[in-house]
Design brief:
Layout (H helix, E strand, L loop, with lengths): L1 E5 L7 E5 L9 E11 L21 E8 L12 E5 L8 E5 L3 E3 L6 H5 L2 H14 L6 E5 L4 H12 L3 E5 L16 E3 L9 E6 L3 H8 L2 E9 L21 E4 L7 H12 L7 E6 L3 H9 L6 E5 L2
Helix pairs in contact: 2-3
Length: 303
């Protein structure tokens, strides 16, 4: 089969190559991949230390089951599925455990499905961990990105008031249609105390936002797209009693993937795909993603 493999000797660190077909375990199905998405944290150009030479990356993929699991568990051959895993998604075939996939409703196409797993699961589980409830004020940094787009919608569905924090006003375009109550570019523009902060950026912005937190508030640290350290002003946290949680969660995804896919099918969750391209242009798309030239998700279709 063909796959995108890590090759640090070529520009962008990726190339198309012929590799052996994956061999499914007894509880794994073999999926013919139709679309896969790119995530910042898995790209060689983003300084991903885990990108070993010759390996096939890819966390997110959607396609059709080509061979059912030998154990009899999971979907049947011909079923359309969305899948998650720590590797193997950037290939024509993917072996996936039945606990890491969900059958797609007819209303959800492969492109939108491929954009769901990592970003959607991260947003869903971060909000769940924070205990978001109606009336909470939730702030989301990096709201124009893949995780951010899902987070603002899911927070709104849970009855929260949502503040989107973006790098510049232009990146706030379209967020109101996703349920955002207010778009800001800096912490000083937030008027009411924040009960829950979902942070994808880190750095000075996170430090400033800690001063906007309500007493007893919760901060979920998801990413650090700024690449900078977070500094606190003296006495900034006096009386705050904040809970700070580092969030990186994967696995046991079947039920949550099915939930997200159903929300999309029912028109309650919009998948914001900023770029759809043939996987032969993966290096160019990856460069644009690293340089923040893609809003929402970047999806590759296999040809």
């Amino acid at each position: 089969m063909r796959a995108l493999v890590i090759d640090h000797a070529v520009p962008g660190g990726l190339r198309l190559a012929d590799v052996p077909d994956p061999v499914p375990g007894p509880d794994e199905v073999l999926v013919r991949v139709a679309a896969t998405s790119l995530n910042y944290g898995e790209l060689p150009g983003a300084g991903n230390a885990a990108a070993a030479e010759g390996t096939v990356p890819g966390w997110d993929a959607a396609g059709t089951v080509e061979r059912a699991a030998a154990s009899g568990a999971g979907p049947r051959a011909g079923d359309r599925v969305v899948t998650w895993g720590w590797a193997g998604g950037w290939a024509e075939l993917r072996a996936v455990h039945v606990g890491e996939l969900a059958v797609l409703p007819d209303e959800v196409d492969f492109v939108r499905a491929a954009a769901l797993p990592v970003a959607g699961l991260t947003a869903l589980r971060a909000l769940r961990r924070a205990g978001v409830r109606p009336g909470h004020q939730v702030a989301v940094t990096g709201a124009s990105g893949g995780v951010g787009h899902f987070a603002v919608q899911l927070a709104r569905l849970q009855g929260a008031q949502v503040v989107a924090v973006v790098g510049d006003p232009a990146r706030g375009a379209g967020l109101a249609e996703l349920g955002v109550d207010r778009v800001v570019t800096k912490a000083a523009e937030i008027e009411d105390p924040v009960d829950v902060l979902l942070d994808n950026v880190g750095g000075p912005l996170l430090g400033a936002l800690l001063g906007s937190m309500a007493e007893g508030g919760t901060v979920i640290s998801i990413g650090a797209a700024s690449g900078q350290d977070t500094l606190l002003a003296p006495y900034q946290l006096v009386g705050k009693r904040l809970t700070l949680v580092g969030h990186q969660d994967g696995g046991r995804s079947a039920a949550d993937l099915a939930h997200l896919a159903r929300l999309v099918a029912d028109g309650l969750l919009k998948v914001s795909v900023g770029r759809v391209a043939d996987w032969r242009t993966a290096v160019e798309v990856a460069d644009d993603l690293v340089d923040r030239r893609v809003r929402g998700k970047a999806v590759l279709t296999l040809s």
